[in-house]
Amino acid sequence: MVSSSEPSEKLRILLMPFFVTSHIGPFTDLAVGLAVAGAGVVEPTIAVTPANVAVVRSALDRHGPAACSLVKIATYPFPLVDGLAPGVENLSAAGIDAWRIDAAAVDEALTRPAQEALIRERRPDAVVTDVHFFWNSAVAAELGVPCVAFSGIGPFTALTMGRLTDAVVTNGDGSEPESSQEVVLRGFPWPEIRIPVTEMPEFLRCRSGELNPCVEALGRCFGQVMNTFFELERPFCELLVREGRAKRAYFVAPLYPPPPPAGVNEPCIRWLGSKPCCSVVYVCFGTYAAVSADQLRELALGLEASGKPFLWAVRADGWVPPDGWEERVGDRGMLVRGLAPQTAILAQPAVGAFLTHCGASSVLEAVTAGVPMLTWPLVFDQFIGERLVTEVLGIGERVWDGRRSTRYEEREVVPAEAVARAVARFLEPGGAGEAGRGRAREHAAKAHAAVAEGGSSYCDLRRLVDDLVEAKIRGRE
Predict the structure, then answer these.
(1) I need a surface site. Which of 68, 297, 331, 366 has the fewest CB within 10 A?
(2) Which of 300, 296, 343, 332 is nearest to 316 (CA)?
(3) For 412-442, what is each residue's pLDDT tens digit?
């Protein structure tokens, strides 16, 4: 690594994402956005561990050849973790060892030293950190430079989790609440939000009562960037600012580039081009959460029984469909193994619904494409994101109302009959999918307006650059 400690007229921003593809992608998009917004002024650098460089390069490729010259990549060593094979440094590729990466990433003693060494060596003018790396705000403060937190979630989810943090208490003996309990949140710009304990993020289900260090760090940060646009979550954006949850708030999405032309050379895109408008359900559960073989089998049989065309991105290595399934489905269905070109898929006229895990990036991509959603959350904040889709925005429906949980071992297998019923009903003419599509397209128009010149996200991104430039000038005085 080359030291960048000498003074520079450029605004040098160091961005540090969490060790998972769903965070590295948006961080890379933000880096490109900052470079474009501060043309000739901003010099962004993405800092990742060596095995994650390929993930950054893949995200840069979405923006075209010029992006590689706009954004630099720096590396720092991944922490030594017992039981983890060398080169496994991303939750999305770790399989059953993902918990080891997650535990190491948020362990200050393991991860801070290498990150802090890189920050001190490069001495950037500003640090943009993942909220998980709470210590970086303290490191930046010691160097006298601003630290901005970048959150992949929007204000609805952030405010909901903040209220859950306040509302959920452990039992008197220190054990976690009963799984049958339900938390009711009021005081939102919404009547009420009800969340069963089983659907809350894991870290909230067993708390010590101590203030989360990430919350403390956010209070120290120069500001917070959120991966949403103001018009999508207006009342919650306003509430976030009004409650002082961030010293400065910037709503900058959508940051990713428009999809490639319809003639992109991908078999799945060509297949979609052969299907009628709004007839296909696209199925994808993201890059991380595990889905059992039993559940994959029921999902396969349910998609078959629905009678609707489907495009399914399967990321379970070695999974084989039921005997005879591919022959019975024929050209009505298509499997994509590994990563799918999701933004290009959602932009295709044939896609009438997105069966999704409700990851924040996937929800945003569906909204921007104007595609309604069938919701099937699995982990983390996804059950909260589902409520934004179904209850607040009204652009989706749940696949299943049975027992659900953020814990793998507590989930019920959703039967094929329920999958078939949900898909068929959602895509039928005049059904919930059609009504949701109309509302989703209204939000899509707002998303495109937000990033156009003079739009809310366009202005917030430039305001962020201006504020950081001003902070750099003040620091010299």
Answers:
(1) 331
(2) 296
(3) 999 999 999 999 999 998 888 999 999 999 9
| Buried b / exposed e along 321-360 (16+ C-beta atoms within 10 A) | beeebeeebeebbbbbeeebbbbbbbbbebbbbbbbbbbb
pLDDT in tens, 339-353: 888 999 999 999 999
Q: Provide the token pair at 419.
A: 């999958």
Q: Which helix (H) or strand (E) holds 474?
A: helix 456-476
Contact 311, 336 (CB under 8 A): yes
Residue 162 has pLDDT above 70, yes or no: yes
d(CA 131, CA 390): 26
User: Do the beta carbons of residue 220 and residue 138 sit within 8 Å?
Assistant: yes
* Average pLDDT taken over every residue of the chain: 88
Residue 134, φ and ψ in degrees, nearest 5:
-65, -25
Cβ burial of 361 (10 Å; 0-12, 13-18, 19+) is: buried
Burial class (CB in 10 A: 0-12, 13-18, 19+), 39: exposed
Strands (E), 76-117: none
Rounded Cα distance, 160 and 193, in Å: 8
What's the pLDDT score for residue 257?
75
Alpha helices in 153-207 (DSSP H): 155-167, 202-205
d(CA 1, CA 50): 12
Residue scoring higher pLDDT (170 or 315): 315
Using alpha carbons, select from 84, 81, 12, 90 the residue that is nearest to residue 56. Answer: 90
Residues 58-63: what's their mean pLDDT?
90
Per-residue b/e over 183-216, b at no fewer than 16 CB within 10 Å?
Answer: bebeebebeebebebbbbbeebbebeeeebebee
pLDDT tens figures, 196-244: 888 988 777 765 444 466 666 677 899 999 999 999 999 999 999 898 8
Report the distance separating Cα 270 and Cα 143, nearest Å: 52
| Contact by Cβ (8 Å): 14, 146 | no
The bridge status of strand 193-196 relative to strand 182-185 is antiparallel
Looking at 293-415, list the stretches that DSSP marks H as alpha helix, in order from N- to C-terminal side. 293-306, 325-329, 342-346, 360-369, 382-387
Look at the block and give the residue holding tokens 């067993």.
206
Q: How many angstroms from the chain centroid is the CA of residue 215? A: 19
Helix (H, G, I), strand (E, B) or coil at 196: strand
How far apart CA 405 and CA 378 sit, in angstroms, is: 7
pTM (two decimals): 0.91
Instruction: Name 243's Cβ contacts closer than 8 Å, sequence gap at least 6.
Output: 159
